[in-house]
Amino acid sequence: MAENYSNGGGQVGQSLRPRCPAPFLLKTYDLLEEGGVADGSGGKIVSWNGDGSGFIVWSPAEFSDLTLPRYFKHNNFSSFIRQLNTYGFKKISSKRWEFKHEKFQRGCRDMLVEITRKKGEPSVFPSYLKSSSEENATTSNSMEENNNNSHQLLMEENKNLKKERLELQMQIAEFKSLEMKLLECLSQVMDNHQNKSRRQC
Amino acid sequence: MAENYSNGGGQVGQSLRPRCPAPFLLKTYDLLEEGGVADGSGGKIVSWNGDGSGFIVWSPAEFSDLTLPRYFKHNNFSSFIRQLNTYGFKKISSKRWEFKHEKFQRGCRDMLVEITRKKGEPSVFPSYLKSSSEENATTSNSMEENNNNSHQLLMEENKNLKKERLELQMQIAEFKSLEMKLLECLSQVMDNHQNKSRRQC
DNA sequence: GGGAATATTCCC
DNA sequence: GGGAATATTCCC
Question: What is the pLDDT averaged over residues A87-115?
Answer without folding.
Answer: 94
